[in-house]
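Possible regression after last week's pipeline update?

I re-ran a chain I had predicted before the update to compare outputs. Posting the input and the new output here so someone can diff against the archived version. Not blocking, just want to make sure nothing changed silently.
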Amino acid sequence: MKHLINLATVLLVFLTVSSCKTDTKKEQETKEQHTDQISKKDCKDVHWSHHKGEDGPENWKNLCDGFSDCGENAQSPINIITSNVSKVDTLIAAKFSYGTSGVDIINNEHTVQFNISGEHNVNLNGTDYKLLQFHYHTLSEHTIDGNYYPIEVHFVHKNSDTNFAVLGVLFEEGESNALFEKYLDKFPTSKGSFKSEDIIDVLSLFPENKSYYNYKGSLTTPPCSEVVNWYVLKTPLTASKEQIEVFSKIMNNNYRPIQALNSREVQVYNH
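New output (post-update):
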């Protein structure tokens, strides 16, 4: 009888310990799931990359809730097929009110960017936008008839939180680029910045002919918000072979793959 009582006691203790372990495991799993849910919603410290892998462009939409637009249907960049663009009479020439800016260059590990000082505005088909910054990609993000260009620069403008305009300018190999001649060796090759008291004339960074392709799309980096009116200029700028090679090493293929056009229309304005 005493033996049976001892056996029952051992069994009770075993069941109690097992139950505690199970409850602890469930609590841990619930805590981990809750942490995952929080981290999924919070994009603040989420790492993303332009290169293939878990944090690459194909997975941006899954990295956190705030990046979900990266999987939507009006994404950028696109391949512009020149034979399919629509010629319309409603588009007009861009009206620039640009001035001069100091030089403030930053490498944020995704691109090399010039932050702008002073007031610089452009009117695009009746809407005013303020220039915030311009930055670079290699290769180009947009393609023309399936062809990549070695460099593309984006001039990012804002009207409101839901209305941005980005002017994209392509580069081809040719004559040396004056801005690169002066600052390419100052571009930070890793995270960092360079400032100068020099003054640059911002409008001089555009080609003389400002004919453009226009379509509605998104930011080309997370969160990929579909709030952008894109104006991709038809006339490319030039940079020397040596400049392109140096620049490409710094940028390290920081371009997003081409996205589907879906039901969108690309229009063209010829100056």
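Follow-up from reviewer: compared with the archived run. Residues 114 and 239 are 18 Å apart (CA to CA). Marking as no regression found.
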